[in-house]
Amino acid sequence: MSEILFYLGAVMIIIGGICDLFGAIGLLRFPNFYVRLHAATVGTIGGAVVPLFGVALLALGADFLPHRYAIAGASFITGIIVLLAAPAGATALAYAAHKARLVEWKPKVDHLAEVRGDD
Amino acid sequence: MKRWVTLILLLTAVITLAYVFQVPQPEDVKPLGEFYLENSYFGDYSAKSPEVITSILWDYRGIDTLFETAVFFLAIIGSLTVFRLTKEQEKEVKTEPTQVEPLPLPIRTVTKVIVAMILAVSASIALHGHLTPGGGFQGGSALAVAPLLIIAAYSKYALEKNGLDKTRALILRSIGLLGIALVALVPLLSGSYIMQNQPVFPAEINGQLIGGSLIYYNFFEFLAVGAGFTAVFLLLAIPEEKFKKILGVRR
Asked: Topologically, how does it sit relative to the membrane (chain B) (predicted)?
């Protein structure tokens, strides 16, 4: 049981590292603010939440670790908080940038306009 | 290419240095440390707080901490003075502009959840100040994030409508300051020194470790810092247009 938890947690931490790398590359290479914001969110959700859950699983599986339930609980709760806060923050940033017309707006596809056009 | 070489050189240098110069491990406790441990954790007249740093900060270097706190409050009083307004101007600042579009729903909902969490976490930081690293100032700073988030996600008017305006924040802050002063002065009554914990306040209540005066200091500092920051944030959240109107700046 503890081995399954260990491998699951390790895989999640590795996924986190990969997501962080992709997020960083995207942040440097993507063309405009909105897509870069997407890359940043990949970095926070994939690169912080997933490894935090991984750490929680690892801690649960490690029998030798003192206070392992505390560590697992804290990681899990922190993960959930980041999971809630990161999309809200990204939404707020995108909304503000769009509202203030600070960023050039050249969508290839505009679903919102399509939906509004149907109304 | 040159940049890569520099980067790799730097990284190698840092890693080598970190490997070669390892931090020396202390072999035994120094005499001064022993004295502090004896008088803040062991011993009959101690606060029995396992968080010795808080104990030393508030009891052995209490005057120092008091003046640090005083600097913080002077900063707050200074900003309040810069933003002082007449009664009509206060009213003007508090009236909500009508055509304000609220932020998208997810932001507001998440803010509600996170504000509740922040309140719990900050109270935990402050009230465990005598047990774990942390304490009143840290807890208060965390507490001040809650109104800041509400200001960002809703508006300062939402905060004021729910009863937390500048005056209330200042009253709370004064209560905190008064509490700190009273807790500092109580030992004088029984012939001890000012701001000294031992042995005036009980270290335990019902078998629950409270660290003598530390929990009172932490609680009042928590209140004072949180409310002080909130007052300043409320002032800083006043829209620029209103100030331009008040100051008579032409567009």
From this structure: Multi-pass membrane protein
- Interatomic CA distance for residues B175 and B88, integer angstroms: 27
Which phi and psi (to 5°) does residue B101 adopt? -85, 130
Return the SS3 of A62. coil
Give the model confidence (pLDDT) of A34-81 as tens digits: 889 999 999 999 999 999 999 999 999 888 888 889 999 999 999 999
Q: What is the ipTM of this complex?
A: 0.74
The number of domains in chain A is 1
Nearest to B58 by CA among B192, B218, B201, B173: B218
Question: Over the stretch B115-139, which tens digit does the pLDDT of each residue have?
Answer: 999 999 999 999 888 888 878 889 9
Query: Which domain CATH number covers A28?
Result: 1.10.287
Q: How many CB atoms lie within 10 A of CB A96?
A: 12
Q: Can you tell me the distance from the alpha carbon of A69 to that of A61, in angstroms, rounded to the nearest whole number? A: 10
Please give the residue range of the domain that contains residue A107: 1-116
Instruction: Give the closest-approach CA distance of A13 to chain B in angstroms.
Output: 23
Tokens 């300051």 belong to residue? B177
Nearest chain A residue to B109, by CA? A88
Of A8, A71, A7, A14, the C-alpha closest to A47 is: A14
Q: How far apart are CA B142 and CA B170, in angstroms?
A: 18
Nearest of B237, B235, B94 to residue B163 by alpha carbon: B94
Q: Which tokens sit at B17? A: 């240095």
Per-residue DSSP letters for chain B? -HHHHHHHHHHHHHHHHHHHSPPPPP-S--HHHHHHHHHHTSSTTS---S-HHHHIIIIISHHHHHHHHHHHHHHHHHHHHHT---HHHHHHHHSPPS--PPPPHHHHHHHHHHHHHHHHHHHHHHHTTTTSS--HHHHHHHHHHHHHHHHHHS-HHHHHHTT--HHHHHHHHHHHHHHHHHHHHHHHHTT--TT--TTTS-SEETTEE-TTTHHHHHHHHHHHHHHHHHHHHHHHTS-HHHHHHHHT---
* Facing residue for A92 by CB, picked from B103, B113, B117: B103
